[in-house]
């Protein structure tokens, strides 16, 4: 998914850092799946681990440990 210049996605966040979700750019089932995991605007997401090829990305959200695909992480704009 293309991102506008200067916008940072969850995929850009380094291991051991956290970020606050600004916006979900995915549509349809992708956006619904992300929201079902508890990731919504204003949510704090901590990146715990990234697989060697960048997929999956393991994060902590609201005390739960989750795995995200690269495509999901690219749909989450953070600030």
TrEMBL record:
User: A Pfam family name for this chain?
Assistant: FeoA
InterPro entries xrefs: Fe-transptr_FeoA-like (IPR007167), FeoA (IPR052713), FeoA_core_dom (IPR038157), Transcriptional_repressor_C (IPR008988)
Where is the Ferrous iron transporter FeoA-like domain positioned along the sequence? 8-79
Claim: Plastid is one of the keywords in the record = no
Regions crossing the membrane? none
Q: Which UniProt keywords apply?
A: Iron
Keyword Coiled coil among UniProt keywords: no
The name under which this protein is listed is Iron transporter FeoA
Species per Swiss-Prot/TrEMBL record:
Raoultibacter timonensis
